[in-house]
Amino acid sequence: MEVVPCPAVPASTSFRLVVHPTRAEPQVNVYRLPRSAESLQLEARQERERAEQCETHLARVQAERRSPGGLTGLIDSGLVKEGSGVTGRDLYDTAQQRLGGALRVEKAHTYAAQGQMAVALEVQNRSAQPWSVDREGAQLVSKEGARLRVLSVWQPEPLAPGQKGLVVVEVAATPEQARGIYVLTLGEGNGARTVTLRGVTFP
Prior knowledge:
CATH architecture of the largest domain: Distorted Sandwich
Distance between the termini: 83 Å
Largest sheet: 5 strands, antiparallel
Order of helices and strands: EEHHEEEEEEEHEE
Low-confidence stretches: 1-7
CATH topology of the largest domain: Coagulation Factor XIII, Chain A, domain 1
Oligomer: single chain
């Protein structure tokens, strides 16, 4: 019986040979294939390159997860600012909200691009507790009662007391629907604090 191990670097190794009751060989030969320093350096370099590629890929995936896709991602990345890049509209002079609440809309813009619309809000949390938007409860309803289909609701992180933060609601809308006037309602998952913005129109 002849045992030939794979190429390796260690100066010594140990084998445990178990004798078969009927198939034993009188002699066992073991060979070690030496490796050159160049071969080891090449393998180490290849492993480093593979690790760097994995780290780069992981960083890219993590960055993509932090920022959403679609029209919401364009707004978050800064590629769309107050109407630049896609059709946009400032709602400062037209939209209204109830004053005196725990949450206040400081800025509001709407955007439109190929059947997709988005409402981007800067919300200030005036309460003593953090606020997180309820992604399942977001609504855009017209004065006639028509509802737009909400595609996504994005908030980078819970809004701490006293802080301002971005909330983006992305919806699907036909050109006819985009001409309507809507009421936007955003609630929180485990509480009664709600953002209500009336007079929302799209470009």
